[in-house]
Fold these 2 entries.
Entry 1:
Amino acid sequence: MSRGPLDGMKVVELAHIMAGPACGMMLADMGADVVKVEKPAGDDSRRFVPPRVEGESAAYLMMNRNKRGIALNLKDRDGVEALRRLLAEADVVIENYRMGTMEKLGLGYEALRKINPRLVYCEISGFGRTGPYASRGGFDLIAQGMSGLMSITGEGPGRPPVKPGAPITDITAGILGAMGCAAAYAHAQATGEGQRVDTSLFEAGITLTYWQSAIAFATGQAPGPLGSAHPLNAPYQAFRTRDGWINVGAANQANWLRLLDVIGAPELDDDPRFGSNHDRMVNLDALVTVLSEHLETRETADWLTRMEAAGLPAGPVLTITEMHADPQAQARDMIVTTDHPAAGAVKSIGLPVKFSATPGVIDRPAPRLGEHGREILAEIGYGGAEIDQMLAGGALVIEEGLETADPRPRREARGAT
């Protein structure tokens, strides 16, 4: 059975926390065999607690499902040699170390391409591997600020800058990295030629400013925050109802007229302040005031029923837990469950891309520290005695209690895509 469109791709993930692990997770969900290489203390996200799930970090469990795990001490030459042998047989490597770290290990791209010319070498960093900021470390908060995102997020002009709630440059950089890896892998399959794939949190943030950059290019002025409103269309934002909030997408003229019909205010079509999208954008504050007076008269569910019947795009503002329970999220397999040996049934977010012929499979929980170390080393030619020696010498680390555990078979998760 196919495990996804990338079934057969061998990936080594030398990444921690979020951006790199998100990239590896996307590839794993699409069928790649992803081996996560951790330091002896483990990925830093193992210590992002609380919350825990039966003693395991919820953050680590979320970002590392569907991968196999090995823990190597890269300060030990035997650990470095094991990594070199892994990379010699890999199709893709993902790394988000500081610039120069892999070169110091003798495992930079130029060294690796000599032993594995087909290798796709994916680097995810704060600012990219070229340019004046190449040597800087990077964090989502910093990238959000420098990419312009925080200048367009918030309630309005004169208010403090606001970071979007999700670490969106981390996640977007991971998605861009996975896209780049898949494209470079296709090229390598066709030509035998690997290459570097280089993306960053900074560039991920910049790609999310398409509309605002279009405005700035055209006008020479930087747009500011508009709350939930759209920079180019109105009304297209959240409005308060009698019991909560509702998002209304009445941006084009047809939907604007549908909205007026639903709220029972056809006279607004004759109001010169709101006749066209341009007029509504110029008079946005007045528009919001008028519409709010109408929308606050009924409850969210009532408005949603009326708007759906009219064919008007609208939706509730859900909490995260409400989103998890939403029937559309459930129907699209966006909430999946895997069975973890310590944490039990663990829920996570599903694969957001569906494939009709080669569906992805999510059937492996995040690995415990070094869980698959023995089997991974055996696959690249290490004998039992060599592995024992690496364990004794500290080059290989396996979490206590796993040495005698039987390898857990891959099995389909409940709700897998």
Note: The chain is about 35% helix and 15% strand.
Entry 2:
Amino acid sequence: MPTSKPPSALETLFSLGHVTCVEDLRRLAKRRVPRMFYDYADSGSYTESTYRANESDFQKIKLRQRVAVDMTNRTLASTMVGQPVAMPVAIAPTGLTGMQHADGEIHAARAAAKAGVPFTLSTMSICSIEDVAENTDRPFWFQLYVMRDRDFIDRLIDRAKAAGCSALVLTLDLQILGQRHKDIKNGLSTPPRMTIPNILDMATKPYWCANMLQTQRRTFRNIVGHAKGVGDLRSLSSWTAEQFDPRLNWDDVKRIRDRWDGKLILKGIIDPEDAVKAAESGADALIVSNHGGRQLDGAISSIAALPAVVAAVGDTIEVHMDGGIRTGQDVIKAVALGAKGVYIGRAFLYGLGAGGEAGVSECLTIIRKELDVTMAMCGLRDIQDVTTNILAGGPGFGL
């Protein structure tokens, strides 16, 4: 079963207003989560220039403040791939979520359900599809990586169907792995290797250790016991090197589209030409994403790529985006530039590392409040009325 509620001291921090923004959650998470897992979440590939641009490019976009308008009866309700959402935000698929906090995927799924937004479970999760389905009461989305073992992929899809997953998110931008220097230096493994540096680091993280001791979920449970001959699962790097398939192409997308009869979302689109191919694939939506700056270092930020993708596909496919979302202001800027919804990855991981389910709920509450207030100050009462009219500046809006 999932671990107990976070300690009262953390709840007191929230209730007293000591946590007011996602950055506060990040600082808490950095103190509570072992370095190898915190760094895994909070890093990019090579020089991390794209990772940084994902955040900083949002700051270049300015908003138009409007006054003397009726700000009552506001609503953030929308839809993503036809499913009602309380705000146009979903929790992104992130690997090793259950190593940020014990049973992390279950905690995050529960917080998302309470907030009325989708939760997306990663193939490389610690809690399995079945773990999350058994411990939550609302459908969630499942993110799929394409492995060399196509039988394993087919079984994953079938397991997602059996668990009642309401959408499949197919990631296209991880055929090979961009190098993340911190993971190599930290000797990232799941579970962590008991080296002297790791033991000393974990000794300073009693909250994390106490929760982790209460769960048996400490490895890749979507894979262990399900994949055949995949080798040593202690290391994420060795698994990806062995099984991620560099041959992935649009024929594979068609094959998966034929096997999965639910909503299909394609993740990892940055280039307009690829966006057109995604629209032609029969998918229901695409996600403008550079994998959080963790793959091609030097690629443009997701928010900078968004307008050209929207222009390329028009209304032929629903467009979402992820990368760099830390505030409600970021959400409304993405919506203004054409995103039907956005995904938060690091932001919810900070909340999870800071305080489990309560921390993720706090993250979603912060983003919702910021989004609501920002929309009102831009002179609107309905998120579905948000367009480029709320943005200040020329055609590029600073990008």
Note: Residues 346-377 form the longest helix (32 residues).
